Amino acid sequence: MSRNFKVKVPATSANLACGFDCLGASWDDINLELTVSHVPYPARKHTSPIISYTGEGAGEVPLDPYKNLTTRVCIYVLRCHDILEFPDDLNLKVHNEIPFGRGLGSSGAAVVAGVLLADALADLKLSPSRQLDFALMVERHPDNVAAALIGGFVGSYLKTLPEGVLDPSSVPMSEVLPEYPPDASKDWGKKPPVPPKDIGHWLRYGWASQIKALVVIPQFELSTAKARGCLPEQYSRPDVVFNLQRLAVLTTALSITPPDPDLIWEAMQDKLHQPYRSELIPGLPEITKTLTPKSHPGLLGICLSGAGPTILALHTHNHEAIADGIFKIFAKNNVKCRMEVKSISESGSTVSFE
Ligand SMILES: Nc1ncnc2c1ncn2[C@@H]1O[C@H](COP(=O)(O)OP(=O)(O)O)[C@@H](O)[C@H]1O
Ligand SMILES: N[C@@H](CCOP(=O)(O)O)C(=O)O
């Protein structure tokens, strides 16, 4: 008898300024949730999974399981374990609170949800580290997926793999996630590239309980691919050192009670990605330079959430005034936005069986 269960994956803010591609934090009360049940054939009309979808992205997200990101990741993980088809009675209700293309890790969450779905459906008993391996075959920077999976404030890196071991970055995405019609593809029975073990490593840092996240979410979308496309191939030594020095301080600074606004504000400066992304996010340089703990008491640090365009303002209090400051700068630049206040997610992703 197949079991019913729920998968919950939180939104994340990757980078936290200086930690490009290596820091991430996950947030409470903003999740991608899958409710999985089993409706046996012939009580329904067809045998492939039935997906219904509400919330952010509804109407836009494909409901065909071979086109939907979460179910494509799920079938990839199943096929890596020699399971070639979805269970034929699968009913998937998706509710998504994470807006698309805003830098809150919607695609990372969809990928993690797909891995956890496969794990639970086939009782694969994957360790968190193995779950991360599968997620990293699709999402190739570890910051969002590690934070979404583990929860809290997380640092991560990709291991240098020994010669001869499959390098995930060399595998075309079409081999990992082919958009295959189930019976027309010649490759259907072929095993997809299985990830090497322990590709990604992570460490969860402390997070001072007073620190909350204000997220100011512009109405426009910016795909992560586009926001990565404007980054340079190479950096100067002073710029790299600038970020390393701040990274060395920030990871501990955010765990200290009470938080020190001056230390954190400066530690949340960045020269590796935000300056290049400014051309895509009107008002960004002004927001990150002019809102300070002096001008806005309670503010700790301010940066892009992930690849943007959402602004993340870590604070202890006074979120209305901080939000107002950001709104005013965005308004001058004709950017409409809304705000939410979040706490750190202690649990990360969860799977709960009925
Ligand atoms: N729950 C979901 N189900 C299916 N596809 C999703 C889901 N969430 C995100 N996506 C896909 O990921 C895209 C956004 O990814 P991306 O550009 O990386 O932005 P971000 O991850 O910052 O929101 C969406 O346009 C959509 O194609
Ligand atoms: N390190 C990545 C993070 C992308 O996060 P997202 O939430 O915008 O997908 C980057 O900065 O490109």
TrEMBL record:
Organism: Wallemia mellicola
EC number: 2.7.1.39
UniProt keyword annotations, A-Z: Amino-acid biosynthesis, ATP-binding, Kinase, Nucleotide-binding, Threonine biosynthesis, Transferase
Residue ranges of every copy of the GHMP kinase N-terminal domain listed in the record: 75-152
Keyword Heme: no
Descriptive protein name: Homoserine kinase
Pathway(s) this gene product operates in, as recorded in its UniProt entry: Amino-acid biosynthesis; L-threonine biosynthesis; L-threonine from L-aspartate: step 4/5
GO molecular function: ATP binding; homoserine kinase activity
